[in-house]
């Protein structure tokens, strides 16, 4: 009796399945025909299976609206994107790539967490920006005398192959001029300090008795130039900042030490190249500006002094991205500062490659028993980059190896 009741219940369920299937079928003729044909099956399960295979292919996509309110499927929310359009050329100081694996890993991680390429967060090489949105000095004159320039006479237009080659060659010459000028200024600074040192000696000032150093504080050779990280810093830079020149993003920064040699190199580059955006330059017609070294005009009243604060940007996160709005990026930057994460990223011991270096290193230890090695990267390249457009559009124009 129990088995009979159970069979009756199953039959009713199968009959209900058939009725529901037919009622949702858009082609009633096919449904009726399939139902009549299914009468040859004595088992209800077989009938239901036959009807499913016969009717369902004819049903097609559902015409039921996805949204009962609007009748339209819900729209996807567009991901936050970094949309800032950069300008001009930029002069960078790049660390040795062989020493920056951990640094680039963190930069890649931050990019992926804040949207990656879908958010226009494309990867770029670690660098310290010396100038942003400048141009090549005397570029108009250089192009006008070059026979391969053809009809392309404006820097603002897309460069052809010949333009890229010419730009690279001229860029390398200008960067070499920066290096030459650095050593001239270095010698000038040294001689000035030497004169002051001698004057003090003539006037009877004995630095040894006062405990002061008798060595002259002279910037190092560029081959020994270091990039020394000192702290992490979270920097919101909305579109409304700086009179509407803001990037519309939040930046996790790595602050660098303003060493004497780095400060001197910045001053030299600033003199060789036309004014950048931070020093009254960066105009849309980049090719009309000339190097400040070519004239003696006093422009001190035209622009205000901007303090050089060397740093590295680890990434530009869109200000409307969830990782930014939730505070994740700021919290991670603060945590990196608490942990002094930069110490793990940069080498903290000098590399010794020769017997001469060993002797110098031992002499340093003898002179100062408490000598501590601060984390730093070797400055490898002085480079010129086209930073016109989005991050994806950046490309290197020219670079010189400071270690050669």
What layout of secondary structure does this protein have?
Blueprint: H1 2-23, H2 28-37, H3 44-55, E1 89-95, H4 101-113, E2 128-134, H5 139-144, H6 161-202, H7 207-210, E3 226-227, E4 229-237, H8 241-244, E5 249-256, H9 260-272, E6 311-318, H10 322-325, H11 328-339, H12 342-345, H13 355-367, E7 377-386, E8 395-401
Antiparallel strand pairs: 1-2, 1-7, 3-7, 4-5, 5-6, 7-8
Helix pairs in contact: 1-3, 2-3, 6-9
Structure description:
It contains 13 helices and eight strands. The protein has helices at residues 2-23, 28-37, 44-55, 101-113, 139-144, 161-202, 207-210, 241-244, 260-272, 322-325, 328-339, 342-345, 355-367; strands spanning 89-95, 128-134, 226-227, 229-237, 249-256, 311-318, 377-386, 395-401. Strand 7 and strand 8 form a beta hairpin. It is globular, with a radius of gyration of 35 Å. The termini are far apart.
Comma- or semicolon-separated keywords:
single chain; 404 residues; alpha+beta; 5-stranded antiparallel β-sheet; 3-stranded antiparallel β-sheet; 13 helices; 8 strands
Summarize it.
The chain has 404 residues and is of the alpha+beta class.
Q: Give helix and strand order, one letter per element, not per position.
A: HHHEHEHHHEEHEHEHHHHEE
How much beta, percentage-wise? 5-15%
**What's the overall geometry?**
globular
User: How far apart are the termini?
Assistant: 98 Å
Gyration radius, to the nearest Å? 35 Å
Quantity of strands, as a count? 8
How confident overall, as mean pLDDT?
74
Largest sheet: 5 strands, antiparallel
Determine the structural class based on helices, strands and strand pairing. alpha+beta
Which bin fits the share of residues in helices?
Answer: 25-40%
Question: How many helices does DSSP assign?
Answer: 13
pLDDT < 50 runs, ≥5 residues: 24-33, 55-77, 152-158, 208-214, 284-303, 361-372
